Amino acid sequence: MMTFKGEKDRFFAVYVAKSFFLITCFWLLPFFVHEYTHNLIFAGIWSFIYFYLLFTSILIIFNVKYEFEKDHLYAQGGTFKRRIPYESIYRIRTTADVYFGDDILLTSGNAIEIFFYKNGREKSLKVSPDDRETFISILGGSCPQADMDVYDISYN
Asked: Does the pTM of the predicted model rise above 0.85?
């Protein structure tokens, strides 16, 4: 079993900072908009929601890992978990599109998109392992049937 952590780069740091700033702005907004929000019950419930979202985001973002198991790739970020059998993977490619996709588990602008079949449907997962070359070579070796469309993308 081989484990890779999620790569973290400047793109990731800026993205996280913007996300936390927006979450905080949306948390504060009701307190400035309406006077009914100026009570302890609303502030307590609203703060619980805010800290839950913040904690969940931190858990997902900073605990990203990808593991090569015997017969599948296991990707985890916080509570998000995906097991992809090697035989279901049909394409592996690098991509600059880090914002849109079926499942996104990124911590970097250097993305690898893995296309696979699940329940007869085409799906994809975007990942960003810390050692891309080794990750791609192990994944390619585990999935010889997959088309490889890999090139260098660097946002650092």
From this structure: no
